[in-house]
Amino acid sequence: MSSTSTARAPAGKRLLAGVRDSSAFGVLVAFIVLFVLFSILHPRFLSPQNFRNLAVSISTLGLVAAGVTFILLVGMLDVSTEAVLAMSSVALGLMMAKLGLPAIIGIFGAIAVGAGIGAINGLVSVRFKINPIITTLATLAIFTGVAQVTSDLKQFLIDAPRGTLLWQFGFGSVFRIPIQLLVVLAVYVLLWFVLQHTRFGRNVYAVGGNPAAANMLGINVGKYRFLAFVINGAAAGLASVLISARALNGWSGAGQGYLFGAITAVVLGGTSLAGGRGGAWQTLLAVLLLGTLTNGLNLLQVHPYWQGVASGVLLLLAVGVELIRNRLTHKRYEQ
Question: What is the pTM of this model?
Answer without folding.
Answer: 0.89
